[in-house]
Amino acid sequence: MTLTPDTPKKIIILFGVYDADASIWGEMTYWIGARLGMRHCSLCDITHSLFRAKVDWKERQAELTARFGVEFRAFHRDDQPDAVRKVIKGAYPAVVAQDEAGEFALFMSSAEISSCGQSPSSFFTAIIGHLAGTQKNPWAKTDT
Asked: Which of 23, 47, 109, 138 would be 133's cystine partner, CB 3.0–4.6 Å?
């Protein structure tokens, strides 16, 4: 089922999927390719600095859970849940929402993620906008 404005449901989990693989080889080839300008993942740029997760992103991720009751789980192309894979259909990076009924739907496209630049705060603001229904996903409302 695809969520629509006619079927508002509370989002409980967001699945962010990087345009990279989780294996050691996948991580190495992405890291080297990104340094050489041959690989790019806008979600990676938002959540990670050169060697580790950005402190600002960790804070925003914790705030998302504490204030809005929404967990953000990050995956790579090769370790994402099958239900998420079916929604993304190879268009990485992306964010998929799971609602309280267990349904999955695209929450943010690659272009929407890219529009946040490398800023965890901009990404967080975009997520909150979607959750509040002020952007392109009016069905994704929370009780705040």
From this structure: 138
Residues 6+ apart with CB under 8 A from 90: none
Structure tokens at 132: 């509040």
- Contact status, residue 13 vs residue 7, Cβ threshold 8 Å: no
CATH, residue 106: 3.40.30
- 96 - beta bridge partners? 15, 106
Buried b (16+ CB within 10 A) or exposed e, 113-133: bbebeebbeebbebbbebbee
Indicate whether 140 belongs to any domain.
Answer: no
Q: How many domains does the chain have?
A: 1
Block residue for tokens 């849940």: 81
Q: Read off the pTM.
A: 0.77
